Amino acid sequence: MKNKIILALGLLTIIFFIASIKSCQNMARQKELVNQEMRTRMELEEEVLNLSKRNTDLEQQMKQLQEALTEQETNYQSGQQVLNQEVVELRGELERITKLKESLEENLKEALATQSEVR
Predict the structure, then answer these.
(1) CA-to-CA distance for 39 and 20, rounded, in angstroms?
(2) pLDDT band for position 119 (50/70/90)?
């Protein structure tokens, strides 16, 4: 009977030993899965941070481009106003020169008419 008890206790010890080994293996597997998940989370978090930084950089670049565009639009409008003013001035000058030309032509006709009468 004592041998049966010792044999039973020995078998139970072997069963518990195998169970504890399997438990350790499961724990090691679980730990590896947790480590993989943490690596994945860290990589994703780093990617989110990189995308956030890139987004911020792009927003700043867009703001600078919008400011440059506004400045160019202002310069364009100023240039348009200057050109319009020059066009008005040139039209006035053209009109003045045209009147002067007509006056000179009229004076030339009168001088030629006077000269042909004198002859």
Answers:
(1) 28
(2) low
Q: CA-CA distance, 44 to 85, in Å (whole number)?
A: 60
**Secondary structure element (H or E) that encloses residue 10, with its range:** helix 2-118
Count Cα atoms within 13 angstroms, Cβ side, for 79. 6
Domain ranges in the chain are 73-119
For residues 110 and 115, give the distance between their C-alpha atoms in angstroms, rounded to a whole number.
8
Q: pTM of this prediction?
A: 0.54
Chain mean pLDDT for the chain: 94
Separation CA 111–CA 18 (nearest Å)? 135
